[in-house]
Amino acid sequence: xxxxxxxxxxxxxxxxxxxxxxxxxxxxxxxxxxxxxxxxxxxxxxxxxxxxxxxxxxxxxxxxxxxxxxxxxxxxxxxxxxxxxxxxxxxxxxxxxxxxxxxxxxxxxxxxxxxxxxxxxxxxxxxxxxxxxxxxxxxxxxxxxxxxxxxxxxxxxxxxxxxxxxxxxxxxxxxxxxxxxxxxxxxxxxxxxxxxxxxxxxxxxxxxxxxxxxxxxxxxxxxxxxxxxxxxxxxxxxxxxxxxxxxxxxxxxxxxxxxxxxxxxxxxxxxxxxxxxxxxxxxxxxxxxxxxxxxxxxxxxxxxxxxxxxxxxxxxxxxxxxxxxxxxxxxxxxxxxxxxxxxxxxxxxxxxxxxxxxxxxxxxxxxxxxxxx
Length: 373
Hints:
This protein is 30% helix and 21% strand. With 373 residues, it is an alpha/beta fold.
């Protein structure tokens, strides 16, 4: 076997069998975006032209006691490197970083035989989305990204009909697939009016306290007034067990409040969201966000979640109880927002179009929606 799929690689990166990575992209591409695991992956960046031109010098630098995955942008150059080096433990990553970018890894949060809550990990961008529903009944998708077919395939396996699709907020780091799923399935697209006002498409505005039922499992809009990351950021409570917080709070830290150019007022909104909206909810709810910062935050089963009470009490930022100190901390830890995020927001508002190639160009790299450390 001289190749490996992105799905197979995704199952290995968090294990003791994680491979060595030989990345043959240009150094600037490697620095911007790499394959990551729960622990740092051993890797080597040697540009393609060097690997092809100086194979004898490269071979001694490659470990022989484990698999080595060779990576490029699209899978072609890395395949040639595998052939040129001729070592038995080399595996070409099929589709390269292009395919890695759209790989979704499903993890089960809940499955009682009738109802299910599935977390999809877009491992390359540290993005999370969710499927909530009842076998043989109806289901909803929350914050979909990367691959429409992955959600449709789950619906098919569960014998469920997708009736609703939600965005917890207007995404800036990736293109939402909510409208595409709505068009493919006839599902109603829900987003807050605070985020989608002026959008070029029709949507159902979320209302505080609105309840959606899938089987006997409720999905509750836990207040459109959970702003901060965006004006209309919305949290969704599922089955009295999970709180899909979007980018308001993560399993560690908070979403950055500057992507719309309103840093100070949105930071204050976020402080009030945490202390007046989230803090009054059941502290046993498991926060299940739309992003994460590091694979190290994942549980042994691969899921990313954290008890709300633990987050409120022990997270260094979320637990801050002084508004002025909170705002000062936010402002001093922002870093520079990627300029491309405004282009993505325009696509998600329907103001600009993006074909498959343009979408890949816009989405290159990890998300940078979290507040800096």
